[in-house]
Amino acid sequence: MKSITINGSKRESVGKSASKALRNAGQIPCVLYGGDGPMHFSAPELAFSKLIYTSNAHTVVIAFDDKKTYSAVLQDIQFHPVTDKILHIDFYHLFDDKEIAVDIPVRLVGNSIGVKLGGNLQRNKRKLRIKALPTNLPDYIEIDITDLDIGDRVYVTELESESYTFLHPDNTVVCQVRTPRALIVEEVEEVEEDEETEGEESGESTDDDKPKDGKSTDDDKPKDGKSSDDGKKSVGDSKPDGDSKPTKDSKK
Fold it and tell me: What local confidence, expressed as pLDDT, does residue 248 receive?
């Protein structure tokens, strides 16, 4: 893992007032843990820019005025809730024979098959916490996603290494290729259309095809109230023309 050197100055005065005075002077109060006891020191604020404002992981070499150096790793950092200025930084002393827990960034390489087919790549973990000796700490954890199809996932167990141990459950998903929502909606519509087609091809009559209440429909009734039997005449048509009575006008 790459290392960044920070030039610090040991400080004897601790407390809120001393820390505030350091910040006003452009210095950041820091503490180095892990040795015989906590070591208080300060360093210029600009010295931490390459360590904090980056996605890469680094170890730190703290160099003091007495030419003593300490290998360390960033453990905790506090920011101002409004201005986001650095208020305090904690470091942990590294020893060559003692394992340390560190967050390592994840780097994805390759073009996923699933993404080419329209899937969405989702990064569930941008950093993974591992435990290893300082000499075995990697700069990043690389994952080749070329063979990832739609629905495939990469679990933390697939990234196991002899150099370090992951501090995550075995079922932790690091990244995956999800099915796009538009494709899910299209598949649901196709299923509904197939079900409707199967119902039409079954040949079963529906309620709309049956007459309601057992009565015939209007199409079954003869028009104009006449019988459909053409061989029969109505009562009015059965009287001959000679039997009709003369009207008053015909007697004149």
Answer: 44
